[in-house]
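[Meeting: bench + compute handoff]

Bench side (C.D.) handed over the final construct sequence. Compute side (W.E.) agreed to return the predicted structure before the next meeting so the bench team could plan truncations. Sequence as handed over:
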Amino acid sequence: MKRVLCLFAGLCLLPLSIPSCGYHLGGVISAKMEGVKSVAVEMFANDTEYPIAGALQTTAITNALQTDGAFELLSPTTADAVITGSVSGVDISRSLVDWRDSNLSLEFRITVHVSYKVTRKSDGKVLAQGSATGSGTYYNTGGNTQAGRDAAISYGTRRAAEAIVAALTCA
């Protein structure tokens, strides 16, 4: 009976010993971010024609960092590192067209392109930099397509922010 109990306990603890990028407890960071305990997120620049894209990306990266919990969010003056970046593009493509009229698009895919850089405050060293993309879709229902487009851009920025945080917190 003791042997079965030990085997069961070992099997229950096995998943906790396997490192995973997607699911982890707060505090796990990649080697390139070693020594960084707090970060600040500066407003992301917006190089697109959508006025809300930069603000949405800044909010999305802040929320993703709070959800992950690996870093404390502080002001740029007190943080160990600062995350800066820009939304470099927003692409719209047709995903679905009406079978009766190929010029009538029913669904659109929006892809948000983001570049980022993490700089250590103490010495100005660039710890990480890269780019990420995120996509969202909206439907042409004949109503308010601007609200749908804005929601799709918001979703795309959230997906890009998740990819950036994963790059900073996974080995």
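W.E. noted at the follow-up: Residues 19 and 31 are 14 Å apart (CA to CA). C.D. will use this when planning the next construct.
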